[in-house]
Amino acid sequence: MKEQKMQIIITKEEVESRIRQIASQLNEKYKDEKLYLIGTLKGSIFFLCELAKQLTMPVILDFVQVSSYGEEKVSSGIVDKKLDISCDLEKQNILIVEDIIDTGRTIQYLKEYISEKNPKHLEICTLLDKPAHRVVKDIVADYTGFVMKEDKFVVGYGLDYAQMYRNLPYIATIEE
Q1: What are the strands, taking DSSP E only, across 69-142?
Q2: Is 48 exposed, middle or buried (0-12, 13-18, 19+ CB in 10 A)?
Q3: I want to staple 75 with a disulfide (CB 3.0 to 4.6 A). Which of 68, 113, 114, 145 is the partner?
Q4: What is the pTM (predicted TM-score) of this model?
Q5: Which residues are registered as beta bridge partners of 7?
Q6: pLDDT in tens, 23-32
Q7: 127-157 b/e with 16+ CB inside 10 Å = b?
């Protein structure tokens, strides 16, 4: 694979600061109630871990693996579930933690899927929201790190291109 030229659009410090702000909101809302964080693998793992470290209420972590991208830069439009949630979510406070809401198909699928498990409360938290690329128009995150105004492909902080660049401590665009 050829080396990619990247441009940092959100610094490590900006990401960390915004995660602390979101955690503060969650700490205020849920106080001493238990909160289940359902991370979408693999992209949300960096965001979820940093967010969880900032939370003061009892936290349970679980994961689901779904994808509509595979190894491509464009969604296939089909959501494929590869790993299911292992916790009983009935009557629990649930926060779906996403790396990015792009077309909205994946998060819509997860929201409907988890809603069927009869949670007490269900919210969505995403590091990045990319509304310019949205296909499912009525999907809105309850907590958003950053809104991308431009429709650019991004990597870093869990976001990947062909499984690479997730470990970057910032968010960058790949220049063509």
Answers
A1: 80-83, 93-101, 121-129
A2: buried
A3: 68
A4: 0.89
A5: 173
A6: 999 999 999 8
A7: bbbbbebbeeeebebebbbbebeeebbbbbb
The confidence score (pLDDT) of residue 14 equals 98
Q: Is 50 helix (H, G, I), strand (E, B) or coil?
A: helix
Q: What is the pLDDT of residues 34-91, one digit of tens each?
A: 999 999 989 999 999 999 999 999 999 999 988 655 555 555 566 666 666 878 889 9
pLDDT at 78: 64
Cα Rg of the chain (Å, integer) = 16
In Å, how far are 18, 46, 127, 157, 172 from 12, measured between CA atoms?
10, 12, 13, 9, 10
Catalytic option among 99, 102, 129, 160: 102
Name, in order, each residue with C-beta under 8 angstroms of 17's C-beta and a sequence gap of 6 or more. Answer: none
